[in-house]
Design brief:
heterodimer, A: about 290 residues, mainly alpha, 13 helices, B: MetI-like fold, 14 helices, about 75% helix, about 0% strand, flat
Chain lengths: ~290, ~300
């Protein structure tokens, strides 16, 4: 029996394509990129070895530092909001709507499958001012406020980008966390209720601790995807006004493909990778420490 | 949170039996906050999409003179015709389809095979290979763009759709392989072992048992990869060396630069096509899509 499933030819046929593609087009480029981050130039002008100069440049480049902060702040606020809204929705589905939640679950999930570019263009128009004022400013006018030109400031742009991220992904996180909440045995909830735990206290002391594992994985997943934010800030306001809402990913893209600075772009990509790893590790450490305590 | 409290409170048990009607009334009153929350939620989620689709039928004058809440006066399709012809959106859709379908097929095909080889087949080092592939999920796509761009340029395929197809395959393959390995793990080994009793080889058992058994998993992974490829902007933007190669996401972006602040109709129409097309897919496959995307993120 072992011999049949140990057949080398079969393994080679089945795994071969994936392994070849993966090694040639992923591992080799990653190594290549790692190497490039120590060089200056591009493939047309040629490369010169500059050692750690690109890294020094990164930490003294005001735009790089700014975009690093844009990415981190966006990731923190986006993750916080997504998880909180998703969790509240999941609680609503499980404990309030119960069996009747299927339609709402599906409807709220739907924006997740829409392209970020389309959602960004939608929100651009929702908050627009001027001749073709969008509904958001109409609502502000209705309550007596003056129209706000959200996309003219970096805070406004960030706020719209965040709201848009919440809008499109809260339904997804709700479903993710909902499946986790369903795994909590009914008896546990019932007996806690009989012991007098109600409402907020039930959620805080019973439901949240029991759904911790899925909460942690959701947070890690959310951080890893929001640290790589690209489409939404690009399509919403092209990283502007100026470069004030340009995330690391967009800065890397512009450095590589608008300014053909391959070496420095590779350094920025490497910093992004390190950032993702650091955040993942930090969440892992803090969660395991909490579990021990 | 207030609704949570009301709902969690134990139902009054001491009510006299003759007052069933008032009890029902009380229950309805208690449900009101829930209904309000649900209504607000649905409006927030659905109204922007509805507003965009309604806007796609409006004329330029309606955009400028009528309130933004108003419905279109006629069901006018000229914005759609404008977007599809002048705005190149038809070409963008064709490109998106020509890129997405081959990429998803390659990902699924290679992913299923690799998952079987890594999970059902028994050989030394398979766990390290799986771990190596898992590490690939963690590395952001930005890391490989510059080298791949140089590579495609050297072999002279930059003015075709191939760079996108290949890059999407590379990007999607680690997750597909990893998920397939997990799906194969959940099948009892006896199923595969029994199939080789009559002398069939492992390769044959992959085609006769493995593939049919994984029908559901394959569809799930195909959907997950479809959305990530179809909705991607980064890779598409990198390898669009010519406007004729632009996928729909890149096309929407340039349509916005072109019309964005002057002519609203065609842009609204182009976005609406996206919403409606994906809505149709979603209506039929929402259970699969939802569970698939959830599985893809948690295991990834």
């Amino acid at each position: 029996m072992k011999r049949v499933f140990g057949d080398r030819k079969t393994i080679l046929i089945l795994l071969g394509p994936t392994l070849v593609i993966y090694v040639l087009l992923k591992i080799v480029p990653v190594m290549w990129s790692l190497g490039l981050s120590f060089f200056d130039g591009n493939s047309l002008s040629g490369f010169t070895f500059t050692g750690f100069a690109n890294f020094g440049r990164f930490f003294t480049d005001p735009i790089a530092i700014q975009s690093l902060w844009v990415s981190i702040i966006f990731a923190l606020l986006a993750t916080g909001g997504q998880i909180i809204l998703g969790y509240l929705l999941a609680l609503l589905y499980v404990f309030v709507l119960r069996k009747g939640s299927a339609f709402i679950r599906t409807a709220v999930f739907f924006p997740m499958v829409l392209p970020t570019v389309a959602v960004a263009l939608l929100f651009r128009n929702l908050v627009s001012v001027g001749q073709n004022q969008g509904p958001i400013n109409d609502i502000i006018n209705l309550f007596g406020g003056k129209s706000v030109e959200f996309l003219a400031s970096s805070v406004g742009t960030m706020a719209v980008a965040l709201v848009m991220t919440y809008w499109s992904s809260m339904g997804f996180y709700a479903v993710l966390l909902y499946t986790g909440l369903l795994d909590i045995p009914d008896e546990v909830i019932e007996s806690a209720r009989l012991d007098g735990a109600n409402g907020l206290r039930l959620v805080r002391h019973i439901v949240v601790p029991l759904s911790m594992p899925i909460l942690i994985s959701s947070i890690i997943f959310s951080f890893n995807s929001t640290l790589k934010v690209f489409d939404s800030l690009l399509a919403l306001n092209n990283g502007g006004p100026g470069t004030s809402t340009t995330p690391l990913t967009l800065y890397m893209f512009q450095t590589a493909f608008n300014y053909s600075d391959y070496g420095y772009a590779s350094t920025i990509a490497l910093m992004l990778t390190i950032l993702c790893l650091l955040f993942t590790l930090a969440i892992f450490r803090s969660s395991s420490r909490k579990a021990e305590a | 949170m207030t609704t949570m409290k009301t709902m969690a409170e134990p139902i009054l048990t001491s009510t006299p039996s003759g007052r069933a009607r008032s009890r029902r009334a009380l229950r309805i009153v208690r449900r009101i906050p829930v209904w309000i929350i649900v209504a607000v939620l649905l409006i927030v989620v659905l109204y922007p999409q509805f507003w965009m689709i309604m806007g796609s039928f409006k004329t330029q004058t309606e955009f400028l003179s009528n309130p933004t809440w108003s419905l279109p006066q006629h069901w006018d399709l000229s914005n759609y015709i404008d977007a599809l012809t002048r705005g190149n959106v038809a070409v963008n859709y064709r490109n998106s389809i020509l890129v997405t379908i081959p990429a998803v097929c390659l990902i699924v095909l290679f992913g299923v095979a690799a998952g079987y080889a890594l999970e059902v087949m028994i050989w030394r080092g398979r766990n390290s290979v799986l771990l190596l592939i898992l590490a690939g999920i963690m590395v952001p796509g930005q890391m490989i763009l510059v080298p791949l761009f140089t590579f495609y340029f050297k072999i002279g395929i930059t003015d075709s759709l191939w760079p996108m197809i290949i890059t999407y395959t590379v990007d999607g393959l680690p997750l597909a392989t990893f998920l397939m390995a997990a799906y194969f793990r959940s099948v009892p080994r006896e199923v595969f072992e029994a199939s080789t009793m009559d002398g069939a080889g492992a390769l044959r058992s992959f085609f006769t048992i493995g593939l049919p058994l994984m029908r559901n998993a394959i569809l799930t992974i195909a959907l997950v990869e479809f959305f990530s490829v179809w909705n991607d902007l980064l890779v598409a933007l990198t390898f669009t060396t010519d406007p004729s190669l632009a996928t729909i996401q890149v096309g929407l972006l340039s349509l916005n630069d072109q019309y964005g602040s002057t002519q609203y109709g065609p842009l609204f129409a182009a976005v609406s096509i996206n919403i409606v097309a994906l809505l149709i897919v979603f209506v039929f496959l929402n259970k699969k899509i939802m569970s698939g995307l959830a599985a893809g993120s948690l295991k990834g």
